[in-house]
Write a structure and sequence with these properties.
By secondary structure, this protein is of the alpha+beta class. Helix content is 54%, strand content 14%. It contains 5 helices and 3 strands. The chain has a 3-stranded antiparallel beta sheet.
């Protein structure tokens, strides 16, 4: 099975099945090309687009970055490496303000 791996700003690493992205892309193009959300023609285009996307790593990465949001995939994502929080960097360069109570 193919997965998309992404490194987040905190250096944590996440993976999610490329199939989730390919399904999202295939649904979009099948509906766009057929004007339908079901039926034999829709299913044919959907299948063709699924095969195309899963065979082309660039398409998976590009579609995910340009057409999906984190909230679209988070329920399918699995953290494979914890992130690192640099508190010294935050202390030196973090936004600071004085508050009074």
């Amino acid at each position: 099975m193919k997965y998309l791996r992404i490194t987040m700003p905190d250096q944590s690493e996440w993976e999610l099945p490329a199939l989730i992205i390919a399904q999202n892309r295939a649904s979009y193009y099948a509906e766009k090309d057929t004007g339908k959300t079901d039926g034999d023609e829709f299913k044919k285009v959907y299948h063709e687009e699924m095969v195309y996307a899963l065979d082309d790593n660039y398409e998976i990465i590009d579609w995910a970055a340009d057409n999906m949001n984190w909230e679209d995939v988070v329920k399918h994502a699995h953290k494979i490496k914890d992130g690192i929080i640099d508190y010294q960097e935050g202390w030196v360069n973090g936004e600071k303000e004085i508050v009074e109570y």
